[in-house]
Amino acid sequence: MSRSEEVDVTDLPGVDTDFHVHLRQGALCELVTPHVRTGGFTLAYVMPNLKPPITTTDQALAYKAELEKIDPDVEYLMTLYLSPDLTPDEIRKAKKAGIVGVKSYPRGVTTNSDGGIESYEAYYPVFEAMQEVDMVLNLHGEVPSDSATNTCVLNAEPTFLPHLFKLHVRFPALRIVLEHATTRAAVEAVKSLGPTVACTITAHHLAITVDDWAGQAWNYCKPVAKFPDDREALREVVREGHPSFFLGSDSAPHPPHTKSTSTPKDPCAAGVYTSPILLPLVAQLLESFSATDKLENFVSGFGRRFYKRDVDPAGPVKTVMLRKVVGQKIAEEWILGDQSVVPFWAGKELEWEIAKEV
Fold first, then answer.
1. What are phi and psi of 350, to 5 degrees?
2. Residue 253 belongs to a domain
3. What is the pLDDT of residues 128-170, one digit of tens each?
4. Where does the secretion signal sit in this chain (predicted)?
5. Domain boundaries, position 245
6. Which of 14, 28, 54, 294 is deepest in the core (most CB within 10 A)?
7. In terms of Cα–Cα distance, which of 45, 29, 33, 9 is closest to 300?
8. Separation between Cα atoms, residue 119 and residue 115, nearest integer Å
9. Inside any domain, residue 7
10. What is the domain count for the chain?
11. Tens digits of per-residue pLDDT, 161-205?
12. pLDDT in tens, 306-353
């Protein structure tokens, strides 16, 4: 049972936005999609790495309709999966249909990325069309591990950064988001590139380092959490209130048996699930490194401005109220039918909760 301390209340006017979330498909989708609002959010930027991936406008619209049927009170911003089938004409069609971005996955580095890219040059006509119609390119900023080049999960992100610089120079007006940064090198790179390049930061990467996932499958994700100094760089840029850095949870649900077991041939699934606790979790983390005053812009303002989704000042304004609590334990798992997911920090205590939404 929790005890509320009513004197410590934080009001967040506007709509809270998660600019990177995985909602999966089928029965798992039915379980996790309502957790967007459970966690305090009403706008979700939805990743396209399904089976098969979302590569066309029609697929994206059909997926959006499925999500809206599950929870119509969330605004879903849809994306396409960068693949050889994607053409400039499809980009123009997607823009007219309200699709917001295109997600690039390097081949084989994360969940359902077997159809990912190996070289960007072949996609320059697509990027040119995206720049022309003002769609966003979302980059999973890692390269595949390769012993010949001394590349592994710990340096895959810094090794990717030359691709980011090259794309920005070639397409200076193309809005690019480096997703889920985990290193000081990535933070410094994005800070150097100006207003058309932004970066999402996850809640869990503000909390954990390599020691927390080495031997602990529930904290294992891609990109992996790095060194304490890298985590400090993420915290510093949030505390600074830099407008190019905002929340993208990369909340990635997996069935528990895929996280808790592995074999000599098959590793555990990569992904940390934060959706149902997201806003209180972010509030607690920001409070821990003296950045509570940056909470509203981190979870809403900066991302909405970059994506050109500002709240209409003439329209109704939604306010979320957070309050401090004592003894509020995170659920060990969330269950719907025969589906279940285990959240980040399962069984631990949260010091904030959503008091109400008005």
1. -100, 145
2. yes
3. 999 999 999 999 999 988 899 999 999 999 999 999 999 999 9
4. none
5. 16-312
6. 54
7. 45
8. 12
9. no
10. 1
11. 999 999 999 999 999 999 999 999 999 999 999 999 999 999 999
12. 999 987 766 667 788 899 999 899 999 999 999 999 999 999 999 999
Model pLDDT, residue 261? 75
pTM above 0.90, yes or no: yes
List pLDDT tens digits, range 29-47: 999 999 999 999 999 999 9
Alpha-carbon gap, residue 29 to 352, rounded angstroms: 26
- Residues across the chain: 358
Is 250 a member of any domain? yes
Q: Give buried/exposed letters for 20-41 (b at 16+ CB in 10 A, else e).
A: bbbbbeeebbbbbbbbbbbbbb
Query: Residue 228 in 3-state DSSP?
Result: helix
Beta-ladder partners of 260: none
CB 6 within 8 A of CB 323: yes
CA distance 163 to 346: 37
In this prediction, residues 246-251 reach a mean pLDDT of 99
Residue 345 lies in a domain: no
Helix (H, G, I), strand (E, B) or coil at 227: coil
Report yes or no: 329 and 277 within 8 Å, Cβ to Cβ.
no
Number of H helices, E strands in the chain: 13, 14
The CATH number of whichever domain residue 186 belongs to comes to: 3.20.20.140
